[in-house]
Amino acid sequence: MLLIAALLFAAGVLEGWRYRAPMVMASSMLIAVVCLPLWALASTLDAGKALVLLAYLAAHQSGFLVGAYLGAGPHPDR
Question: Can you tell me the distance from the alpha carbon of 55 to that of 48, in angstroms, rounded to the nearest whole number?
Answer without folding.
Answer: 11
